[in-house]
Design brief:
heterodimer; A: mainly beta; 7-stranded mixed sheet; 5-stranded antiparallel sheet; elongated; B: 3-stranded antiparallel sheet; two-stranded antiparallel sheet; 18% helix
Amino acid sequence: MDLPHLIDVWRDPPWGAREAVVSSRAFYFSGEDHLRVTSFGSVASVVLSVEGRFLTPEGAIEVFAERHVPNSDRTSASTLFSRGPGWLLDCQVRASAGTPRRGQVFVLLEVVRGLSGGVTPHATLLQGYVTDTSRLAFPGSLHEAMSSGRGALRSITGTNPGAGAEVSETVPTNARWRPHAFQVTLVSSSVAANREVALVFDDGATAMIRVPSGVSHVASTTLLYSAFHHAPRNTVAQDTARNLPLPRVDLQGGSRVTTVTANIDPLDNYGAPQLLVEEWTED
Amino acid sequence: MRWECLSCGGTYEDPLADGMRYFHACPDLSEVEVRRALGLPLDGADLTPAQLEQVRRAPRARPTPRDENLVLPASSAQPAQIRAEGLGRRPARPSP
């Protein structure tokens, strides 16, 4: 019998024995080997399905479907599945509930030994992002790194700081951000002084990039500071928006995007910043 | 839900409109907050050169900051904790 792509099984072959010849791409499980799915999720209400086909030593092909729920705070969640002896013919992982986008749920499917206590991984079957419309498949899918390819585009409303305080947005733990745009409004008080806003990128403590606006922000004025790639500086006062060039930079968890405002007054008030970032999961 | 941070007075949504969690972290002290912490005049025009230097050299870290970003546990069986509780948070009053 000629089965497609993975396995050829001969029952009652001419020499009389009952045996199976399995494709080299099938993965033998000794009975001590198990499947472990580990996920890093950043979005709620996602359920992953691990589905596949398994050839038993008796020659029967069994289908299986297991369920795994990722965390929504980018921490890892793991589930072990026991299959018994036989050959894993093929399997896939997909989001069967929720609508994660690429960059939001990273999955690792491994062959391990041990079900509790010391669990030792021995082989990696799948590694990459899954969504509700694209899946990872064994065999076939490439093993991809967490930061490879496109990330999830997110529009994030940050913290609205108290009066006299600066804006500060921190890249969450286990995330990588590539900022594409940043916008914030500053309302200056009536106290006379020329403020100057700068956008600063730091690693959580030490500044790496400082982008001064080059604009004197006078008293009793509302200005919108808008930073994006290749932004041209304002050459004349164009309404109340002031452009800043945004550097192309990737930021790891704990890094910050902040404002630093010269001559800031206790009653100056920033609004909540709006960020457009491309985000990856990164452990 | 909208929250108010009791360490810095900032307000923020968690979870965000797209359903994802937001991890607030307090900003460092602004220039005027440093002046207030040092007991100096708040208007920069009233500062002497020595006081300006004092402000420039002062640490910017906020006392008892809140940082909701997670500290990963040694084992995945343990729950992740937020980095710093600070003075806590409470539901923000609706805007007038």
